[in-house]
Write a structure and sequence with these properties.
The protein is α/β, with parallel strands linked by helices. Helices cover 44% and strands 14% of the residues. The protein has 12 helices and 9 strands. 48% of the residues are buried.
Length: 339
């Protein structure tokens, strides 16, 4: 594993933000998360700004187009593809400007893209089947993604002067492994993906990216052991969706092996009641106690985050959620009295 070198007490966000103004989103992220700001995603702008369309904008020698069911492979880049590329460029310009205006450049920044399984699950081939049903298409998408994402990370590093952490989002991976992905028609399911195949393809992408490498999975009981075997240096999970001793054991193994966990602890949506720092910290404290680790582990190898993206939150809660994550990171380093 490549060590994830972050200041003790670092916090970050998952990726998505509400609204359609990239400058505002970038200012909020850079202001609230000074140690590890992330390049904001604004899916509220519609197709092309969502996870799949945004990631497709990074692909090399592959293009997509919008169809009624979502996205399909296209013969050549068209209006839909150019729109996705344009929005990604404006997001990066806004992020660059927000960092310059902040006066203190971060040492590390984070960017996000769909992982190969989620990407291939979200794009149809010309036959109408999901791309992940075709082994040749899977490899082609994985290689194109790795090449495009590596170039994107290099540009972000050059523009910001910071080390780049690349986050692959794999919300569809558990469903693919369990054979629960629906066919585009909705009348059937796609055959389950073998865990060895999932690991191999994910490693094919991760090994071509600059380290450290992060995989985020906000689905229940993410396959942490598989992600570690594929080469992830850090894994991001929604702690509220981690259930049972087997899942806790996988997290413990990941920590024991030197990995860093991004713990989704802050609600992504306003719960409609007061939220205290102790309340959002409690699941992390219980987890380390249950696994037998010293709580000091949280200061160095746990990064608090919202439970998932913030695209559905209102602006007031966005600031509150990011501030809670930041304050929680600091509390891991210097626990308040009574913790």
């Amino acid at each position: 594993m490549t060590a994830v070198k972050l200041p003790p007490g670092t916090a970050t966000g998952i990726g998505s933000m509400p609204g359609q103004d990239p400058a505002e989103a970038a200012r909020i992220v850079v202001g609230e998360l000074p140690d590890l700001p992330h390049l904001p995603e604004l899916p509220g702008r519609g197709l092309g700004a969502d996870l799949i369309g945004r990631t497709a904008a990074l692909l090399v020698d592959l293009a997509i187009e919008e169809v009624p069911s979502g996205y399909r492979v296209a013969d050549r880049p068209g209006r839909d593809h150019r729109r996705a590329v344009g929005m990604l460029r404006s997001d990066l310009d806004a992020f660059d400007e927000a960092i310059a205006s902040a006066g203190a450049a971060p040492a590390v920044v984070k960017l996000q893209a769909a992982g190969p399984w989620t990407l291939a699950a979200g794009i149809e081939l010309r036959t109408g089947h999901r791309a992940l049903t075709d082994r040749g298409a899977l490899r082609e998408f994985a290689d194109s993604l790795a090449e495009g994402l590596a170039a994107h990370a290099g540009e972000v590093a050059e523009r910001t002067g910071a080390e780049v952490v690349v986050q692959l989002d794999e919300p569809s991976l558990p469903a693919a492994l369990a054979g629960k992905l629906r066919t585009p028609s909705g009348f059937g399911t796609v055959a389950a993906v073998e865990s060895t195949d999932a690991e191999t393809l994910l490693r094919r992408v991760l090994q071509r990216l600059p380290g450290p490498r992060l995989v985020h999975c906000c689905a229940p009981d993410p396959p942490v052991r598989l992600l570690r075997a594929a080469g992830a240096d850090a894994v991001a999970v929604d702690v509220s969706l981690v259930s049972g001793p087997a899942m806790a054991e996988q997290l413990g193994e990941f920590w024991d092996g030197g990995g860093t966990l991004l713990l989704g602890l802050v609600p992504s949506l306003d719960p409609g009641r007061p939220v205290t720092l102790r309340a959002v910290a409690e699941p992390a404290l219980r987890l380390v106690d249950r696994l037998g680790f010293d709580r000091e582990l949280l200061a160095g190898r746990a990064v608090p985050t919202p439970s998932c993206g913030l695209a559905g939150a209102d602006r007031q809660w966005v600031r509150r959620a990011l501030a809670l994550a930041r304050d929680l990171g600091r509390a891991f380093v210097e626990p308040p009295a009574g913790w």
